[in-house]
Amino acid sequence: MRVSGRGLGMAVSAQSCKGENSEAFAGQHAADSTSFYIFDEASAIPEKIFEVAAGGLTDGEPMFFAAGTRPGTRESSSAFTFGNERERWTRFSVDSRNSKFTNKEQIAEWIMDNGEDSDFVRVRVRGGCPRSGSTQLIPSDHVALCRKFKASGFETLPVILAVDVARFGDDRSVIGVRQGRQFRILAKLRGLDLVAVTQKVIDCIQSERPDAIMVDGDGLGAGVIDMLRSENYTRGIHEFHGGAIPQDRNKYFNRRAECWGLMADWLKAGAEIPDDPELEIDLTGPQYGYSSKSQIQLEKKDDMKRRGLASPDLGDTLAMTFAVRPSTRRFQAPKKFDYDAFRPGCELHWMLS
């Protein structure tokens, strides 16, 4: 349905959501009012419809409303993930038990027959996503439990800081830190140049004093590594290359798949992660398959984007923390100081805490 209006007037037009009818959603503009689209059963609507309708968001104060269930066959639909634009949307689910219009006796029978935590109830009653697809590396229920998990006894363990640097304009640079069974997101950065990203990384190093710093060395991340080293942040820095040879060559196709596999085991055992729906989408989004040698192979980011999902920057950041095992001895990052106070050739050292 497409709606537009001027003043107190309003025009409403119902349209079929078939892919061949996509052009019917084009040309909706209202510069001096609010026009909006209402998509019902949105998970079944072809991606082409959303793509064409986006043209109506250029004038006035336009809105999109997308409602519907979330069947497992379309878990990656734009109607629920919105790809790289997910931060711009307000997302929420409705438990049908809280609605005054639903048949409570029928719902009670479904729960009795299928179980409270069955995929049927999770999707059709609670308005959530299924536990796991057949090719989903990290099950949704593992992530959901970790969003509520509270870790303890990790304070003396090594601190690992990870930086995933955006390769494209619509991706984000992410800085996160893991200590034992706790992971925190320190920054989500979009639209910053490498100099600004590097300065943010330095700020995080100063505040967190990590034992190891893992930076994605592929693409633009190499520039961040070079600038960190030019500022004498050299000790504890490691370059991550996802295509590198894994330590367990029999099980994993490359280093990225291996780190995601280690992260999946870590989450399954119970760990504290931010209660962040974006992180959950990133962790549960990637699918996996097997190479010709029966090695676990993670889905490529380009393939994820073709499915309507964003690059899993938050998930990659956490995964990179499993690429290094620092000793328990803690290092303290150099404090900010006046470089002019040091004579030329003076060497900067990290200090043991």
Explain what this protein looks like in three dimensions.
- The protein has 353 residues and is an alpha/beta fold.
- It folds into three domains: 67 residues, no CATH class; 34 residues, no CATH class; 193 residues, Nucleotidyltransferase, domain 5.
- Helix content is 27%, strand content 16%.
- The protein is built from eleven helices and 13 strands.
- The chain has a five-stranded mixed beta sheet with strand order 7-6-5-8-9. Strands 2-1-3-4 form a four-stranded mixed beta sheet, with no helix packed on it. Strands 10-11 form a two-stranded antiparallel ribbon.
- Strand 8, helix 7 and strand 9 form a beta-alpha-beta unit.
- Helix 6 crosses helix 7 and helix 9 packs across helix 11.
- The chain starts with a strand and ends with a strand.
- The C terminus is likely disordered.
List the helices and strands and how they pair.
Elements: E1 2-6, E2 9-13, E3 36-39, H1 47-53, E4 63-66, H2 78-81, H3 104-114, H4 119-124, H5 140-146, E5 159-164, E6 173-179, E7 182-189, H6 194-208, E8 212-216, H7 221-230, E9 237-240, H8 255-269, H9 277-284, E10 288-290, E11 296-298, H10 301-306, H11 313-320, E12 331-332, E13 351-352
Parallel strand pairs: 3-4, 5-8, 8-9
Antiparallel strand pairs: 1-2, 1-3, 5-6, 6-7, 10-11, 12-13
Helix pairs in contact: 6-7, 8-11, 9-11
Features:
single chain, 353 residues, alpha/beta, Nucleotidyltransferase, domain 5, 3 domains, 5-stranded mixed β-sheet, 4-stranded mixed β-sheet, 13 strands, disordered C terminus
* Strands ordered across the widest β-sheet: 7-6-5-8-9
What would you call the shape? globular
Tally of individual helices = 11
Instruction: Supply the CATH class of the largest domain.
Output: Alpha Beta
What fraction of residues sit in β-strands?
15-25%
- How many strands? 13
CATH architecture of the largest domain: 2-Layer Sandwich
Low-confidence stretches: 70-80, 335-353
Query: In the residues, how many domains can be counted?
Result: 3
CATH topology of the largest domain: Nucleotidyltransferase, domain 5
Major sheet: 5 strands, mixed
Secondary-structure element order, N to C: EEEHEHHHHEEEHEHEHHEEHHEE
End-to-end CA span: 63 Å
Oligomeric form:
single chain
How large, in whole angstroms, is the Cα Rg?
A: 24 Å
Mean pLDDT: 80
What structural category do the secondary elements indicate?
Answer: alpha/beta
Please give the share of residues in helix.
25-40%
